[in-house]
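Bug #2210: token dump truncated for Putative Methyltransferase FkbM family?
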Amino acid sequence: MKNLSAWLYYAKSLLEILVWFKNWPSLIPLFLCRSRTSIKKLKLRRPTLEVMVRSAMDVWSVKETFVDQFYTRYGAPVEEGWTVVDIGAGIGDYSLYAAHGNRSGVIYAYEPFHESYALLKCNLALNGIENVHTRQQAVWGSAGEVQLDLSSGEPLQISSSERVGRNRVAGKTCVEAVILLDLLREERIEKIDLLKLDCEGAEYEIFFKAPADVFGKIERVIMEFHDLDETRNHRALIRFFREQGYAVICHPNLVHGEIGYLFAYRS
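Reproduced locally. Full output below:
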């Protein structure tokens, strides 16, 4: 049944790409070639935005945000005037989505990878978005530097700048890491109306090590969760957020059993 659901989802998705993306023929090379050959401009029909993409995964991410609207369907629609924090902003698809109908609000976008961050900045400028503040930083469980795998995009370890300097690994990159508490302080945020995360399993470090009073300033959390092991999975996240006073709803991914969407909100 899972395989059937996956095939139906992919078939529906391909049709949606034809309908929603004006210039879908120019995107075909991204799906045929696994190596990144060039950056393409994706043109959305509705809303009329343009997004620079470098891979099929980027195209799929834009589709999930603007066409499937997973973060709205499984979370909450962004309201005018909201403060939104986007952790794992990637190329900026969700930040664009949140800012487009929220011109009086403020979005803070955090993306550690240089290539993704460059596209994030480019896409905001391309669409004239001025209410998104970007930071090339990782959000983590402790401050310092986080070492990232350039091929997989997964945070591997975090330590002080001195220790990372002694243990740099070929094929990895190090970026500055901040904790949730410092994020709130540095940006002078009194309340986060919506916190969005897609950070490849880093959600456990970010949340489980955050002081309890941080959550008093967060109204809603929508995330793509990643089940990693017996102690780091969506069941642990559900328990954790309920302990912080949130109501929690989970939705499984239609294709991948180890990921899904979790929405935590103040009831």
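Output looks complete on our side. The chain has two domains: 1-66, 68-140+177-263. Marking as cannot-reproduce; reopen if the truncation happens again.
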